[in-house]
Amino acid sequence: MTTIAIVGLGVVGGSFAKALKQKPLSDECVLAIDSDQETLDKALADGVIEEGESHNQTILQRADLVIICLYPEALKNFVQSHKSEFKKGAILTDVTGVKGALMANMEKSLPKQVDFIFGHPMAGRESKGYAYADGAIFQGANYVITPRPENQLANIEKVKKRFERLGFKRISIVTPEKHDEMIAFTSQLCHAIAVSLINSDHPERETASFVGDSYRDLTRIAKINAPLWTELFLENKEALLNAMADFEKQFVAMKHALVTENGCELEEMFQESTERRQRLEEADTKLNQL
Amino acid sequence: MTTIAIVGLGVVGGSFAKALKQKPLSDECVLAIDSDQETLDKALADGVIEEGESHNQTILQRADLVIICLYPEALKNFVQSHKSEFKKGAILTDVTGVKGALMANMEKSLPKQVDFIFGHPMAGRESKGYAYADGAIFQGANYVITPRPENQLANIEKVKKRFERLGFKRISIVTPEKHDEMIAFTSQLCHAIAVSLINSDHPERETASFVGDSYRDLTRIAKINAPLWTELFLENKEALLNAMADFEKQFVAMKHALVTENGCELEEMFQESTERRQRLEEADTKLNQL
């Protein structure tokens, strides 16, 4: 029997609980810790967890796999304050969107009796809380593991095996630095752009009458969990600033082509972006056919 | 009987033909002019047009409403070279995404016997050509009319009436300058951002393994009709540069908040963007309930 404990039944933790339940394994039992009793009651009523505790009483002592779905600061505090309660030989993992600074920061305080394997399921929702949790969000998503030298290969394999069935398409294993560089680009920069875009509107405009799908798509993620993303941005400052600088360079080059009315250069930029997007779509299609 | 001629059965013109056919009026007959005979044959076979000509022979002489779905330069040339062929009293309209410079440029060469009402259906697809035309793209979309002083109110009403049934939710009537200011922001700036974003990636990266929905959403429109958008950008240079400057100001402010590790400021930006996006969604929802 493998006992899985989910810590934090928010939109990501709740989605894990639901996804695990949708493809149940007979040897698996899913428990949860969440400070909000109502959320636990809801998850129990939905049948996606078998037991819940609003403060750890016995769950951490029993869990073989602990999936901690908390914000970065809360994650650090949780692990620190429950250090001695984790079961010997348990695997711990997280869902945090930044890795380098977080892992360096936590390294010294990690409990010795467990194997903490840092991970990042690249899926989420703009809205927060269990009510928005959805077992389908991992379907076709990317998942990244950033091992520590201390991790046991067999345990990494166990995590991969257990998560694969939730629908993840690509599970990559990279260094925390590589993860942060990529996430700064594919996720954080996108959020920085979406927020800046919608905030650059003039409030007196009747913008809703002039939007098409482009604007709707580009501002979807401007609806953002403000405290969480503030933490994520600050934790990944250097990599994000690099990604922002790369983007600005392209944006300024485009502005220059426009100022100088250089149609050839504009057209080249559009052709380049079309090819790049095409390749991304092809990579996704290819993977979906596997 | 109202004879409608669609000039150019590309993704937009073809969508008009299909949308008109999906909600047919008994007094309406749809014809088309397209330089590509194969496209005409396809549209005839699909039953979305009743006649087609690869070069105007009789269609313009018969049409009461001519919807010209060509790129800006081609639109100018088409109207110029067929000036004397349009039926007396006909209404002409276009679908061009920029208005100010275009209208000023065309003003002198507009045929006197017709009423040219400039319009912009805010819907499209990343892919071009009749094969991607879809009658549903106007469903819930915005439509903007930018009248000239010479336009007859009754004719503007006629265009509105005939297009309303295709699914447009908001039909706005504004000056060409206002249109261009808004489109620079809601459409062109979004394309400039998407193109710059994907072009700022480093080619040696395996980016596909690290993308989530954010990056997919923000780069969808990076697949772009390069010659068309080069024309659109150049035609709306000043307004687009203003929108780009507004965006840059926000982006630089965010960078500054990050460099100085000002978490409060970041959180405020995220809260502001969340409220703005929320209001946009509410405006859309409200409209859909009407």
Automatic annotation (TrEMBL), chains A, B:
Domain Prephenate/arogenate dehydrogenase residues, every copy: 2-288
Documented EC number(s): 1.3.1.12
PROSITE patterns: PDH_ADH
KW Oxidoreductase (keyword) present: yes
Family matches, as InterPro entries: 6-PGluconate_DH-like_C_sf (IPR008927), NAD(P)-bd_dom_sf (IPR036291), PDH_C (IPR046825), PDH_N (IPR046826), Preph/Arog_dehydrog (IPR050812), Prephen_DH (IPR003099)
Coiled coil, from the record: none
Keywords: Oxidoreductase
UniProt record, GO biological process: tyrosine biosynthetic process
One GO MF term: prephenate dehydrogenase (NADP+) activity
Keyword field contains Oxidoreductase: yes
Pathway field: Amino-acid biosynthesis
Pfam families: PDH_C, PDH_N
Family indicated by similarity: Belongs to the prephenate/arogenate dehydrogenase family.
Name by which UniProt lists this protein: Prephenate dehydrogenase
UniProt source species: Jeotgalibaca dankookensis
Gene of this entry: tyrA
